[in-house]
Specification:
Layout (H helix, E strand, L loop, with lengths): L5 E7 L2 E7 L5 E5 L14 E3 L2 E3 L6 E3 L4 E3 L21 E5 L2 E5 L7 H5 L2 H9 L6 E3 L4 E5 L3 H7 L6 H4 L1 H9 L7 H4 L3 E6 L2 E7 L8 H18 L1 H8 L1 E7 L3 E5 L4 E10 L2 E11 L4 H15 L6 H14 L26 H15 L17 H8 L3
GO molecular function: 2 iron, 2 sulfur cluster binding; dioxygenase activity; iron ion binding; monooxygenase activity; oxidoreductase activity, acting on paired donors, with incorporation or reduction of molecular oxygen
InterPro entries: ARHD_Rieske_2Fe_2S, Rieske_2Fe-2S, Rieske_2Fe-2S_sf, Ring_hydroxy_dOase_asu_C_dom, Rng_hydr_dOase-A
Organism: Mycobacterium montefiorense
Length: 388
Amino acid sequence: MPHPNDFQTRRVGGREVIYSRDRHGQIRVMLNTCRHRGAEVCREPRGNRKVFTCFYHGWAYDDTGALISVPGDDAYSAGFRKADHGLCRPRCESYRGFTFVTYGPDAPELQTYLADARYVFDLVADQSLAGMQIVSGTHYYSMNANWKLLMENSCDGYHAFSVHQTYFEMMLSMGVTPGLAAEQGNGRAVSLGNGHAVIEGPELGMPIASEKILSAISQRRADFVARLGESHTKRMLNTSRNLIVFPNMAVIDLNFGIQVRTMFPTASDRTEITGWQLIPADVPADVLSYRLDNAMSFWGPAGLATPDDVEGLEQCQRGFSAVKEVQWSDVSRGMGAAEPTVVDELQMRAFWRQWNTALTGQPARPEGPRYDTSYLGVEQRSAASGVR
């Protein structure tokens, strides 16, 4: 939403919202619910608008959510005040361009809530001096499975070679050797606090590209080395990472593309998923095309990853019909390991412990080492420790 009065409508946490940039450039989130009878005041998915007018009775709200017009307002009593009937504004905060909404009055500040996940957001957001941007276009899809299964899947390195065998065979046929930690015995799984977790490993391997594109990618990397040093650049540009943010967000950075994903339940066995592609704003057009082609080949509706993942999760959901006989899922892989790897399941245990905390109020027990920030300089680590 680059321009004043740009807006999008979304469903977030079971509520319809208007996500907008007001006339002053401030990001706002407002419930898309008229304060008269509850009808939606905006029915378009996106656009640019200074005023939102309810279709049902014509109540109108400005770009800040303030009620500015009520047809026949002289029929209301003297106690009726427009100022008391603006659109509800849930609390929202942003970090590195990502906007989060909470409906909980006691939720902590966003920076506190993200805990060590902030380091991972930094590694994604710092990949361009010009900023990162969402590519126009959204991938909407659904699955007949519980939403928490996709949270598991989004940070599951163990399933890659069995479920995505076709993709890796394609890579090998093009002369590209996958650099997965599952194959090389490298990588790490880390609990980041508050149910967030990440798996990191060697880059997946770049699908075939022209010399021009490879040269542009190499030059971009050299520019980052000159500015940040080799260690920081390698961690940022040559490391694959799957981040889950409790309760229902994932950021998957596989070097050739970055997917931002949210998942919302509509029933215990039905989930709606939204996926976006995140790119550096300053990449050349041919590199952008290359990244999008690879994203579609892997994550797209007919890609070699997403449909396979959905099939696997729907099979799990069908198998859950035997819950009386098979009462538990086993997520114990790597438990007790000094340094859990990407094919272990510490990251899932971090999610489920936070889920248990949300249900019972019992604090979660931390597991595994803290996130490694040795790639940061001394001054950067010192600055980061002041807010984390």
